[in-house]
Amino acid sequence: MKKFFKSLLAKYMIIILTAISIVQIGYLMIALFFISIDHQSEKNSEYTTDKIEAKWHKDINSIGNSKNINNVFDEWKNEFPKSTMFWVDGNGILKEKVNLHSQLPVKWDSTYTAKFIKENYANDPFTVIAFLGKDKDTNQGFAVLQLPRKTFNPPIAKANERYGTILSLVMLCFIFVFIAISFLFFKSIRKRLLKLQEAMAFRGVDQLPLEIQQNKMKMDEIGQLEQTFNQMVIELRESKQRESQEEQLRRELIANLSHDLRTPLTKLSAQIYILEKEKLTQDGKNAVKAMDSTVVHIDHLIENLMSYTLLMASKYKFTPVQVDIVRFVRESIASWYLVFEKEGFTINVELYSLKDSNWFMDPVWFGRVLDNLFQNVLRHAKEGLFIEVKTVKTNEYDGIIIRDHGKGINNESTKKGAGIGLSIVDLMLQKMKLEWEIQSNMNGTTILIKKILQ
Questions:
Q1: Which of 70, 113, 152, 296 has its CA 20 to 30 A from that of 89?
Q2: Which CATH number fits domain 318-452: 3.40.50.1370, 3.90.1150.10, 3.30.565.10, 3.40.50.300?
Q3: What is the full DSSP assignment across 223-239?
Q4: How far is residue 25's CA from residue 19's CA, in Å, rounded to a whole number?
Q5: What is the Cα–Cα distance from 295 to 291, expressed in whole angstroms?
Q6: What per-residue confidence (pLDDT) applies to 44?
Q7: Would you say residue 397 has pLDDT above 70?
Q8: CA distance 239 to 260
Q9: 22-77 pLDDT, tens per residue?
Q10: Strands (DSSP E) along 356-431, which ranges?
């Protein structure tokens, strides 16, 4: 239960319930306000059109002279400040007037009087016409009372007219406060989520996310997510440390194994050298030659394994310089020429200048790449007895092509290894920002090493 009250759901429910309570209290206060107005309306129920009309007739009929009419006008003005009153005497002359805003003629005739009555009957303002003196005595003329229709509105309508805007503003303030609180609530959530997202995207020196500084006072759903994230970061860091330790042990093991394997290989090479000097039968000579080839092959595999390990650990020395690639490849194939010729290969070399013959690369690394590729041709494509090395240039790139007529990379070979040689080629070319492609089928393999032109 304690965790629930710390949750975001509980906090937002409190905001909703508070808002509903405020609205209900507001409605209750408005209801009480209008109830008090209803009580007031009962007290002021005398202000009806019928009662006003009867009272006006009574007051005007009882007037005996002009002095009395002024007194009556003053009394009605005190009671109804917005009332308009005027008196037209028996001769049709406009005599007295109070709060008269419209333009009326000084001389009234029967036609204008009829028109005035017609225009103001059942209209706004409310108009009452009463004759001075007794009902049958019209020699003193008539008096007119005009009151705005809203004077007779019920108190509730008057209150709405007077306080409606204020009440609406108060309700809008309540709604605005609720929206503002909700906005701040969700803004706080969004800020914490963005902070968590930023922590997930940011990487430290070990390429792992950094831990988030937690607020122990905010252990809601996001706080629990931050805690879980920190735990995940700790576990990842521990896992990476274990992986680094295991990698270090593996490199040390490979280095030790390479050293331990090379020692007996060196001794075996020495024994083979001694056997070659002995008088052997042809079968013996073939056996010694096969043993020597196997030793060389094992030594090459050990060298590749060491190089691959150093490359993966970024420990292989890399010193890039500007190199004339055409000359470099020509010298490299020249060093292998006798080897291919001895094995009966047909060698085709077509090396011409490129658009950009100066390649920025490590000569040792690229020499290792070419040695691996030539060695693969010698071991796995020997049945084709063909190798071609040539340059190619296009609008997009300059390249070196190495082609053989073997049975393809996918073909099973008695000397096929784990593919470490090609893995070394791929890693070295990537590091030197060079691209390469392989096309291989039953008719041979074509390898293209290319430099993209800027």
A1: 152
A2: 3.30.565.10
A3: HHHHHHHHHHHHHHHHH
A4: 10
A5: 6
A6: 47
A7: yes
A8: 31
A9: 777 777 776 676 666 555 554 444 567 788 888 888 888 877 655 578 888 888 88
A10: 358-361, 386-393, 397-404
